[in-house]
């Protein structure tokens, strides 16, 4: 007999217990019944299993960036459960990845490889937390800091140097027409390589001289181009295309679509002719810097931001919500850049808050 067996329960306590059970919807018989079998726990997948699941649901861009690092994780930890590695082990793997990173033309000592390795694991664990396999606070990858990013070495290229690049592209190589078109497309639109490679004939609005750019983050925007560039793009599609408006636009003479390798070949060729291109590791993204710098200096930050296709909330402060530029202002900037009229480039008048055109106080000075 326990001490509790000698306790006398009052009628008031019994009544309170009955009231509480009634409110909970529980009968005395249920308390006497055998406890039910707990639901089966979900088995924890291995990295090899879970990488396959996550790879099938992320965007193509995410898969392209992380696939190399997921393969490395699969090779090292493929048979381990995803909840086993500690933050220290993840840090060790990131450092190993940094040391063994392939030295490329624009290599930064493996820092980017280590960063992507940690980001790829954070992506896996984010889905694991959403699936209820781990708690949000048990994500070990978030407790491993990414390497600090170094300042970019890219900058705007002077006009004379741009002319040198164009001259080499137009007079060397096995397809100067294609390379000249690529350079002009990137200089006019400031698009990324992915945006150019994703272009299709159905993305060309010849009436308004607009191209539809689909770039990273699944962003889509209509970007103005000059009438001359639009004619080049249409002629390129007619001469080298398949006839299907949804096939890739940019192609070799034999009709095969180009890939990122064309850019690598182009800049290696230019670097052999222009030593400063090879030494400073100039790439297509430098053209984006060049165009956007020019637009910002002549038309302001809001137009440059729209020209770049930056729509994220983190690209600027809250003020950017109210000073967002539109496609007509981008077209005006393009017209000034190329010296060629654009159908959407409408001259902007200075208009007061009441809708009346304001007068320049210095006009008669």
Automatic annotation (TrEMBL):
Transmembrane segments: none annotated. InterPro entries: DNA_brk_join_enz, Integrase-like_cat_sf, Integrase_catalytic, Integrase_recombinase_N, Tyrosine_recombinase_XerCD. GO terms for molecular function: DNA binding. PROSITE patterns: TYR_RECOMBINASE (PS51898). Keywords: DNA recombination, DNA-binding. The keyword Lyase does not apply. Pfam families: Phage_integrase. Residues 152-335 form the Tyr recombinase domain. The keyword DNA-binding applies. GO terms for biological process: DNA integration; DNA recombination. This is Site-specific recombinase XerD. It comes from Micromonospora rhizosphaerae.
